[in-house]
């Protein structure tokens, strides 16, 4: 960093790549990706141009939810490697100029965490109050967990239940207990002392529960109601989040990316403003356009491009008004974007490039999920037995319970399954895609012999867009400029202007399936990027479906 001037906003200039460790690269051929595998692929990431890695949970875990169930916050899952190997990864990344952020999962732990084990073993132990236990013969209320069924699980041999917003093997921590909070802060600070650059913070809007624990009218045939109404972004959360920031992140020049679903735009200033809880947050308003809620996959929508564009514009405006956003197309909970946002018959490498160009230059820090840069597609599965993800299995049976046929249920799950993006990374066309020499823990996608990291036009395009944002003469505009949408275009066209000190860059993308003619906002000086063959005059450009252009 420059002399003594510390740039508190350094994270605005990053390009962040998300690694799902179980599926990135297997170094010891047991079929499971690992930390040495990530280290082996650092040169690939360097060449791609990314500056920060976000690694999904690598901590000790029984892997019920693939690491989002932590049994020891300060140890590494042996499947992934050792603390020494993590330290080596951190050092090697540093030498290449790549920072590392980790996943911070502090709403819940695994049921195998020592705290929970002690809480279960002795009802008079102080650890009972580390979690949310309620005495009684019946479940305390009708809240439905995010992964299905009641949020309450009976304690064996007692008239007592404990609460889990996610799986029953992910008991929620009791944030009302000061000792719990202090223990978490100390753990966070130890990781930051180690030299990681920050955290992506899991499910953080769930830490405060309505203390009345009262039932609500059912919203499903199971007689239950989504627990989100009583456990997500509830009043009182502000004091926990302020304290979290004050006791940890504030003491370090680190980045924090909040996974903060359920926050209305009016509250964005509290979350990401100058004194906000986090550096940036993910906004899910348009990511979940194809379903009514991210957890009920049978409630599909008939979304239109016009609606998508409206949500995207609202999101960018809200983020700009309040602070900074984390822009993404994919992650480990979402389907592949080419399958989700592009209509059948158009799912080509060029369309993958069009989507990339559309989102990458939005105002905010861009995130790339592993394999997105290859233009990967969803992995279609033919029976529920082929799924690993707990949420897929729950959604399948819940759909049937709601009256859909098994075939319909499987279709919903194929469209939305979190296993779509969790398939092993295909590095080449060899057996198991060069991910491993052993059969991987989850089957590869069908297309891997063609779509892989060996020779791939989408990958080359990603290198280009990263280079434009990071190292070109328009970098400062693309990184720090403001955003304004052009309104004089068809509903299917997303067009925006980035500007900084009177310098401007324009991005225009056709997100529809028809050819679109667009009146240019100004005569083109230089075409910085384009995805399909160009067809233009001085004043107009004709865009094919999913074609995108960047110019100034
Ligand atoms: C959000 C994570 O992204 C997801 O993968 C996980 O299952 C839940 N939080 C619970 O930790
Ligand atoms: Ca391995």
Structural description of this entry:
It is a single chain. By secondary structure, the chain is of the alpha/beta class. The chain has two domains: 2-107 and 178-216 and 226-386 and 425-465, Alpha-Beta Barrel (TIM Barrel), CATH 3.20.20.80; 480-551, Golgi alpha-mannosidase II (Immunoglobulin-like), CATH 2.60.40. The protein is 27% helix and 18% strand. An eight-stranded parallel beta barrel has the order 1-2-5-10-12-13-16-17. It binds 1-deoxynojirimycin and calcium ion. The site of 1-deoxynojirimycin has 9 residues, from loops. Residues 26-28, 30, 32, 34 line the site of calcium ion.
Please name the defining characteristics of this protein.
552 residues, alpha/beta, TIM Barrel, 2 domains, eight-stranded parallel beta barrel, five-stranded antiparallel sheet, 15 helices, 24 strands, binds 1-deoxynojirimycin, binds calcium ion
Topology:
Elements: E1 16-19, H1 35-40, H2 42-48, E2 52-55, E3 59-60, E4 72-76, H3 83-95, E5 99-104, H4 114-121, E6 133-135, E7 143-144, E8 152-154, E9 160-163, H5 178-193, E10 198-201, E11 225-226, H6 228-231, H7 237-247, E12 255-259, H8 268-272, E13 280-282, E14 291-293, E15 296-300, H9 305-322, E16 325-327, H10 337-341, H11 349-360, E17 365-369, H12 390-401, H13 406-416, H14 457-471, H15 475-480, E18 482-485, E19 493-500, E20 503-510, E21 516-519, E22 527-530, E23 540-543, E24 548-551
Parallel strand pairs: 1-2, 1-17, 2-5, 5-10, 7-11, 10-12, 12-13, 13-16, 16-17
Antiparallel strand pairs: 3-4, 6-9, 8-9, 14-15, 18-19, 19-20, 20-24, 21-23, 22-24
Helix pairs in contact: 11-14, 12-13
The chain binds 1-deoxynojirimycin and calcium ion.
